[in-house]
Amino acid sequence: MLGKSLIVSMLLIGATFLPAVAQTLQPDAATRTLRWVSPTLVEVTIESHEITQKGFYLLQNRTIVRHGLWTMWTNGEKTMAAHFDKGKMQWLENSNGIQYTTNEIDVRNTFERTGED
Known about the structure:
117 residues, eight-stranded antiparallel β-sheet, 48% strand
């Protein structure tokens, strides 16, 4: 099993380059806080200027993947949330509370690429 210091280093590097669901945090301006929830689950909080992102990473087969609820706030207001199951997004919720499944997002993206409605 990987040592905790190596895992923390991997998480910090991953959090540095982790794109937000709708916006990208600037790595040099971001503050990261890690809290071990279990031996394989880490809660991460990333703050950069007015954007805060909070979620979980799961250590699975020597790989770190998003897991559980990820939420983003801009100026203290919830702007987006997403739920991941072992790295795969299950749904995305906008600031109005409307949820879209991964399948709905894929279908919409397909229509946008083909120019259909």
